[in-house]
Input
Amino acid sequence: GAGVSQSPRYKVAKRGQDVALRCDPISGHVSLFWYQQALGQGPEFLTYFQNEAQLDKSGLPSDRFFAERPEGSVSTLKIQRTQQEDSAVYLCASSGRTPKSQETQYFGPGTRLLVL
Amino acid sequence: GQQLNQSPQSMFIQEGEDVSMNCTSSSIFNTWLWYKQDPGEGPVLLIALYKAGELTSNGRLTAQFGITRKDSFLNISASIPSDVGIYFCAGNAGGTSYGKLTFGQGTILTVHP
Output
C-alpha cells in the first residue's frame, strides 16, 4: 500500500517568507508526527497528533512554527517569517491504531527546506 | 532531556564482513527502533523491539533490546554494497513522552566491494 507522502519534496524560500509543508499519512493511521533533521544529525521531534488533536508540541522551536491536522488525516506544518536556521529536512511519520503499532513510526521522504 | 549515544559514528568495511553498532541512553526506553536512511530519503524502519531482552532478526539484521532498557545493538551479517547508508537508533520512553522518538546521531556505514 501507499506509504507516507510529503510535498513539496524541495522548497527554497527567501528569508521572511512563510512556507507550508504537507504530509499525507498512511491510510488509517491515527497518529502523525513531525520531525526536523539538520544536516548530519538525527531527526528531532517537533510535534505529535492523535487524530485531529495535537497532543504534544513541545519540540516546536518557536511560535513561528505551527502545525495542524483539522480532519485527522492530512497535516500541514507552517513556518512563518522563515529564518536561515530553519533550513533543514522536515520529516513526517505516522503510526497505527493498536498500542504496539502506535510505537512504530513510518516516515515519509521529507521536505528539504532551504532558506536564503 | 533524553540523550541517545550511538556508536561508532562511522564504519568502513569490506563486503562480506559483519557489522555491529549500538546505542546507549541515560534513561529507560519502552521501545527501541532501528532505521536506515539513504541520501535524500526518509528513514526506513528495519527492526522494532518492544520488550527488554528481546532479540529480533530481519534477514541479515539482528537487534537486541538491552535488559536494563537503556541500550540496544544492531548487527548486520555478511554485509553487501547496498547496506551503505546511515543507521539510526531511536527510542520511545512512553508515559508523558508517548509518541516522541528520540534519535541517536547515526552511524555512517560504507561497504567496499
Summary: The mean pLDDT of chain B is 93. The interface with chain A takes residues 4, 6, 30-31, 33, 35, 40-45, 48, 50, 88, 90, 92, 94, 97, 99-106 of chain B (CB under 8 Å). The first strand of chain B starts at residue 4 and ends at 7.
